[in-house]
From TrEMBL:
GO terms for cellular component: cytoplasm; mitotic spindle midzone. It comes from Daphoenositta chrysoptera (varied sittella). It comes from the Eukaryota. PANTHER family: PROTEIN REGULATOR OF CYTOKINESIS 1, PROTEIN REGULATOR OF CYTOKINESIS 1 PRC1-RELATED. One of its GO terms (biological process) is mitotic spindle midzone assembly. This is PRC1 regulator. The gene is Prc1.
Amino acid sequence: LQSLLDMMVAEEESLKERLLKSIALCRKELDTLCRELQLGPFETEEESTILQMEKNLRTHVEVLQKQKQDRKQELKALQEQDRDLCDILCTALFSIDTGSVPSLEDLDRYRRHVASLNTLKEQRREEFVSNKRQIILLMEELDHTPDTSFERDVVCEDEEAFCLSKDNIVALQNLLQQLEGRRALNEAVCAELRARIVALWERLQIPQEERESSA
């Protein structure tokens, strides 16, 4: 009986020692995770048993590890979106420390930044498509063949491949204005020529039937 009791005591003391070691490791890991996640220190219930304390600490470590993993995964996803948008819009990448775990505030700012870039992309895409349509119609009307690399990119290139940089949008607007100016000039010349023809018809007393066939 004494031997059995001694063995039971030894097992309990061994378990207690393992639990205390686990508690110390969990506390250390919790401190690290709280610093990385920019959280306040974790407070344990002093009245709980060693077994319950170890379980609570271990559970909290798992929760914080999951939070850390989720934040890093979201950061990676946001960076991928940011890179794609920056390639299309020719803008600078969002400035964030990739060597540490992002705070909730950092992620929120990053989300809003990516959302604003998406909005800007859609606005520029709509402007590009609208201007491209008008440019193609004007070129056909003016019998103008695209003779620069930019004009060929606008008219011929896949819309999704066109770089929506601020400079390209400005260049697109300038091209549209140039073509509109040329059309307005041609229309003015045509109007002047028509007026001269009418004046000559009147002077030469050309019959109405002949005028209509010429018109």
